[in-house]
Amino acid sequence: MADSTSGAPSERNATSASNHISVPADQQISPRQRKAFPLRFLAGVLAHWQILASAVLLGGGVAGLAATYDDYCGMTELSYAPAALRSDFEEGSKVSGFRPGVMAAQIETESHWRVGVVSHQGAKGIAQFTDEAWNAEHYSFGNGGNVLNPHDAIAAQARYLSELRTRLAKYASNEDQLQDVVLAGYNAGPGSVEKYGGVPPFPETQNYVKTIRELADTKYKLTCSPEYQFKQAKLSFVNGVTPAMAGVHADGTPLSAEESASAAEVSASASASASARPSTSASARPSASASSRSSAKPSATGR
Question: In angstroms, rounded to a whole number, what is the distance separating the alpha carbons of residues 114 and 150?
């Protein structure tokens, strides 16, 4: 018993000794060294500030390149739209809430970029507005502009799309559906969308919506690699409409103030000449009248 009792403390001491890890005196961290650690860390940062600064600048440069790349891609959705109208679509997008490429696809579907085209319902210009919608008293999408002017037409297109977006939003559950119902409202009238609770079952309207979506997803899509099978869109002037009548040059760039004034004078002069020139029926009447007077006078003189 005495041996076992006397042996227990020695065993505990041995176990305790085995659990304790001794650290050489030269590797032990004193309280003074612990307090100096932050200063040493700061000194290290200062000593290597160039490396750290380079890392930060490199990261910022990569982010900047990514942003520039994204901006470049955003511009290419209008690669095939007439160059003179690209800024109009970009500004119109801010008003309508739809991509510039969607708006360009709609104009191509509406008029195929033909200035002066008139629909069977009397809609005019590249955005196809009737006189009532353009100049109505209670609302005016034309806002005092020229319906034949491509820049004014795109601004009016954006205003109308914005109104339709607000009015027809309840008939769509996502942005894709909203785009479809708004385009349908532009083509068939918002009342038709409200009547059917969505895109109406009219073949013309359904094909209209489908065509614009396909163009927006291909020719006018957001990409840095435009597909080269498409042709560059260009304005054309039809039905006797000249660029000057539309307030633009042949490429679609706006006329200057002096050019606009000169074009207005030419237009006024042409209108005055047309008014002064007798029509075919009018020129026939004086001739008949003269013949009558000629035959009557001798007869009366003879009497």
Answer: 10
